[in-house]
Design goal:
Oligomer: single chain
Helix content: 25-40%
CATH class of the largest domain: Alpha Beta
Order of helices and strands: HEHEHHHEHEHHHEEE
Shape: globular
Number of domains: 2
Distance between the termini: 32 Å
Strand content: 15-25%
Amino acid sequence: MGALHKGHAALIRHARKLAGGDGCVVVSIFVNPTQFGPKEDIARYPRPFASDRKLCAELGVDAIFHPPSGEMYPAGFSTWVTEERVSRGLCGAARPGHFRGVCTVVLKLFTIVQPDMAVFGRKDFQQCMVIARMVRDLDLPVRLVFAPTVRENDGLALSSRNVFLSPKERVEAPSLRRALLAARAAFSKGERSAAKLVRLVRGKIPALARVDYIEAVDSATLMPAREMKRGDTIALAAFFGRTRLIDNIQLG
């Protein structure tokens, strides 16, 4: 959705490598209004298009997909795409309607651009799984590539929303990553109880943060797990002030 940072740059570089010398790399920059709830931060979402365009040029992007909202959603728009299982929990439960907006805009993107491959970041783990299910279920001719999360030196996952953190919040925000790493360490030492691992994560998040959710799930189905196994995921979302941050970790 724009406000491109080092994480997006890594995705673009990966796309360029996959495309090769003869391939075309297209970057979508579109603040999608349909994936924001009525009380969410679309009005304050950063839109530094000039700097985004400069970064794309430096990285050898061939085209930027940057349509006006009214072109993507013309008057009378009434057709929506919903995924009804993988999107049910986590951010789907916390943000009703969010993934309807995601699926609809991504399907429109794929239909218009017709890519052979599409590269997404694993920080938005549930989004990756929802889009993968949509591609599978609707037989879309696109190969999905999920690239690793890019982080600051202190572990904070890069996000366009990080610019809204106050200095104090920015100091505390890496606690999310530390909490998840503690859970992975406990799993490596033999802890398998999902409830205990979730409690461990919650106990390491500072009082400054307001936890939205912490869930231990099967990575393929995103259904809640009771006993964790290798490859399962712990995902979380928390507010620092008005800024909502997400992160996740795979166990084992």
